[in-house]
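Please review this one:
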Amino acid sequence: MDEIEGRVLNMVQSGQRERILDAFGKLVAERGYGATTMADIAERARISRSELFELFERKGDLVGAALLRTGVAAKARIEAARVQTAEITPWPARLQRLLELYLDDMANDANYMRLTITEPAALSDADPGVRVAMRDGYLASIRSIALDISARTGGEPISETEAIFVSAGMSELLARRIHGGMEPGDALRSLATPTTEIIVRLVRGGRMPAGDPPAEAN
């Protein structure tokens, strides 16, 4: 295969990957992860099964690719929210509104909700490295927001350990609210206020214990 043929193949496969991921996301949103088969995905994407398996050997690979794409979209959401809230004062009000916009956008993303919140089997199917990369991206977003605020206000920048605790606390609160009967999207949106309160306290100097975060359970 010469260079031009290779480029054409890469372009075709890139287009196929996006079509496959779109089909996968729509099917999971419609039917659920467990009820979605590779045959269904190939049919919805209008490709052969052999073409599908050439790009994704199993559903877990599709979850991983979808999560990575979601991570890119999450960064774009954060940046868009920053722009939208740039003129809001005082800074705690800006932080609250920024998180409200960010979480509302995620709650309205059916694919994100299914793959990360309402379909735990999908998330557990993804490669562990992808899950770590997604979590690291989210932690970076939390720290980036807090660093931006601390730079503007002269407050204390939060550490990586503190960002991990904030993220873990949000996940636990989300799970408890869903378990208590709250609709998942509403539960996600409801995290804006408690998250704001925690970050405000940290930026104002209410420190968490120093040291490494606890080891993640297997």
